[in-house]
């Protein structure tokens, strides 16, 4: 990857330029999309259905969860077709094929971090304190990036061989979205402890949402169990993703 760093940088820059090329707002869409979603769900849960969930500064509570989810879901959806999109390059040149989905995920990370920093500044201003758990944010984001990258490697190489993977992924992400703690915190569901634990631990993206929200929104450090989960999920996804990708990449130049 160090040897082909220039290619990686060019792919990232190209993806950033082309993402909303020709649109009036350009890169501002990275901010507009989560803001629109936040407004819609704030109206639903805070005005139409008040009392279903109750959190101070609920729009910010929503915004943090939505940003994490959008980064995760868009990384996977964009990575799924990335090898096919770069098929001509793959057929003509020899380079580590992992660079292609990695560049896509990195583009999503850059825009995600920019918006998250803005949200963090707003939450710090509202709290009136700059808490030390913010120092943990780079570690949490690094684990989230590694987790998303590992899964992106899996879906990208599988979709190159089996073109049903991307549509299936899109269908799976929809119910996954509503089962993730974006509109609520797992501790809000006090009536059923087993269901609460399932939402927190069985859903692999839930601890990442919880950890980012703890640091940015609540200003507290995630629990040791959550941090251990993040590290384990990141390592497992990366090791598994790289292993599967390298096993299946031999025929990529043919199938793409």
Quick structural summary:
With about 260 residues, the protein is an all-alpha fold. The protein contains twelve helices and no strands.
How do the helices and strands line up, and which of them pair or pack?
Layout lengths: L4 H15 L9 H20 L9 H23 L1 H4 L1 H6 L6 H29 L9 H25 L3 H15 L13 H10 L3 H13 L5 H25 L3 H4 L1
Shape: globular
The residue fraction in helices comes out at over 70%
Name the structural class: mainly alpha
**Main pleated sheet:** none
Extended strand count: 0
**N-to-C SSE string, H for helix and E for strand:** HHHHHHHHHHHH
Beta fraction: under 5%
> C-alpha Rg, in Å?
19 Å
Low-confidence stretches: none
Number of helices: 12
Mean pLDDT: 86
How far apart, in Å, are the first and last alpha carbons?
22 Å
Q: Would you kindly provide a written description of the structure presented here, covering whatever features stand out?
A:
The protein is an all-alpha fold. The chain has helices at residues 5-19, 29-48, 58-80, 82-85, 87-92, 99-127, 137-161, 165-179, 193-202, 206-218, 224-248, 252-255. Helix 1 (5-19) packs across helix 6 (99-127), helix 2 (29-48) packs across helix 3 and helix 3 packs parallel to helix 7 (137-161). The protein is globular, with a radius of gyration of 19 Å. The mean pLDDT is 86.
């Amino acid at each position: 990857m160090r040897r082909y760093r220039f290619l990686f940088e060019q792919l990232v820059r190209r993806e950033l330029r082309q993402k909303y090329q020709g649109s009036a707002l350009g890169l501002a869409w990275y901010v507009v999309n989560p803001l629109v979603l936040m407004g819609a769900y704030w109206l639903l849960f805070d005005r139409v259905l008040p009392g279903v969930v109750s959190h101070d500064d609920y729009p910010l509570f929503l915004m943090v969860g939505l940003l994490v989810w959008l980064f995760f879901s868009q990384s996977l959806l964009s990575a799924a077709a990335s090898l096919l999109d770069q098929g001509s390059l793959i057929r003509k040149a020899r380079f580590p094929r992992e660079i292609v989905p990695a560049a896509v995920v990195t583009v999503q990370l850059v825009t995600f971090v920019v918006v998250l920093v803005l949200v963090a500044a707003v939450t710090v201003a509202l709290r009136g304190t700059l808490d030390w758990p913010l120092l943990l944010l780079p570690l949490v984001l690094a684990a989230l990036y590694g987790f998303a990258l590992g899964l992106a490697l899996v879906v990208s190489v599988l979709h190159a061989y089996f073109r049903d993977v991307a549509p299936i992924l899109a269908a799976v992400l929809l119910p996954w979205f509503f089962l993730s703690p974006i509109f609520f915190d797992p501790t809000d569901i006090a009536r059923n402890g087993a269901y609460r634990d399932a939402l927190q631990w069985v859903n692999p993206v839930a601890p990442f949402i919880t950890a980012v929200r703890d640091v940015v929104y609540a200003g507290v450090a995630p629990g040791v169990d959550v941090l251990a989960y993040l590290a384990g999920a990141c390592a497992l996804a990366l090791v598994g993703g790289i292993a599967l990708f390298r096993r299946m990449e031999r025929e990529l130049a043919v199938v793409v």
